[in-house]
Write the structure tokens for this entry.
Amino acid sequence: MAEFFIFLITILILYVLLMLVPKNVARQNGTVWFSTTGIIMICCWVFFAGIMNLMGIRINLYTLSGINAVVSILAAVYIIRKKKTQKYYIDWRDILILCILALITLLIGKIRYGMNLDVFAYASDDSSRHFDHARNLVETGRITQAKYVMYLIDMVFIKCMDPFIGFFNWHRAFMIADMFLWFMMGAMFWVWIRRFINGKYSLIAGYGFTLMYFLGYPLLNLLYGFEYLGAGILMINFLLWIIQKMDFDELLDWMSIGLLMLANTSICLSYTQFAPVVFVGEAIYFILFFNKRKKLVSFEALAVLILGMAVPGALCISYVAARYWGKFLPVLLLLAAAIIILVLAVLVVLRIQAGRRKKKMSEVWKLDMEMLGRKRWLKILLGSIVTIVVVFVGYRYIFQGMIVQFATKDQGMVLDGSIYREPYSNFLILMFPMILYIIDCIKKKQNDVVLWMSLCTIIFSGWIMYCVLQGSIGSYYFYKMHFLFWLFLFCCAFRKTACTKGDERRVLTIYLLSAMTLFLILLTGKEQVLIEHDEWFWEDNVSGKLFGVYQQNMEMLEGGGNVNRDMQTIYNKVAEIVEREDTFVPYFGEELRYLKEYYYHLTNQDPDRHPEDLNSDDYPSYDIRKDLEDLGIRYIFVQKNYNGPYEEYKSEFDVMWTEFENDYGWILKLD
């Protein structure tokens, strides 16, 4: 309890100080900054916890409280030096959409997990492994997974709720953390589009786009339990907001560079498959950004390259593919030596020039940079070098190494998993405004990071599809890119919708309203009624294809997840026995991988401890009771209603004591 209160106090102090830190002379949107401040805090935890873990320091609420204290001191010093605090305004339009998102989150949580959040209902067995990884972080204080951002968030929710819910209900805290992630995905999308809302038309469009985005792939992410993937998209959305702020405010200071570093680190350590798209798109954007401002060769550009991208990349490699440090180290040492020699040479030259011109070295440096910035051949040369380096490092070490060779060998990237599979239909309607937006950017020569990341996503997805067709990557990973493209699609489509005027606005409005009519047809089920009435008259469900992801979400909500209430109840009883007796309770049930993993992970047991001789596919023909006693096993779980060991060993099981029973199975005790 003391750990919880210390953490709560430090987090409140940090939140207040981060809100008070001056960001701009003008009053800022309080709701926007309240949302983003929460993400900033999480990114601070991710960055410093990753470094502390490498140093062997345990990660818990005390550790995070220390991080909160350090960042609070830095924020307080900054406020004192500036001698001012930030002022805010509150807009009812922001409060309204966040309240709507919160109500939808609570409603979906009730439908999916039950009124008391007592059913671990997900459509994929990935969720049980994620829960196991999060619980392992709570119990050991060690980060053992490369994709640890969401596990760290899970750990915070579990540790904070543990005094109130107890050990056997940790899965409830895990599900609440998932709902928090889903809510923040919707909130951060609104935060990004907020700057472009000006007037009733863009406000209505903003509400509509936010809700349609929120109820599409982000909800699908919640239902499947791909929390690492959702965390990655959330952090990419946060990165887009940071870059948007820099671009529109024309401000690149150390605070912005620090936020870039934190956001990129969290992206890398959420889901590495998204890193190449983000880094390449971001590199293109910043090259054009600094070139436009004639600062391609500047300390700011170097800081963005090193702090904003290289540092997050190095931390990512430390967790995702530590063995690559052996290949990177010689290159880094040579690069460091070259930089030191170059800096010394520049200082010598500047010293000589300053003596001749009788000026300060800083003035001479500024004049030299201005002179070099006017030379077109130098810009082309430097741009080519940077592009070649980015492409080579990105392809060689990220595409081929960290994603293909590393993942294929260690994580089975050639294998497929359970995921929603629809190649392109869900994107068709908004592709029209997205293409119009891309054309506008090209005509106006507009440098937009969303545009570059969108194009990189399309190219990268095409490359993954090629690998899928070659048999080197599973299609599962191709469809994961759809979750990311959904974000960029809605960002581009909304930008075009919000900025249209005159006849173009009328045409686009009619187009979107027509699409909404089709969506309402899907919701009311009118097409399905016609199909069921006469399949020869109405062959296909057109609206169902165009809005397939929403239809999939509705069907999954109605059908429930892989764990029902009876399963969860008996799993909780097994977990109590495991904790109380410090024993192992083996699984006698269907040999479906996801059912077996759910059982062991939700009962706080290691599935690797399951004795091979007890596999349901190959039961021994001799005395199973003696086998269990020899293994020191006193309790077993037996599933009902399937042709398995119960029928074969009915006489053995019938003489065992029934510790607990419901419609799903028995917990039997050996006398």
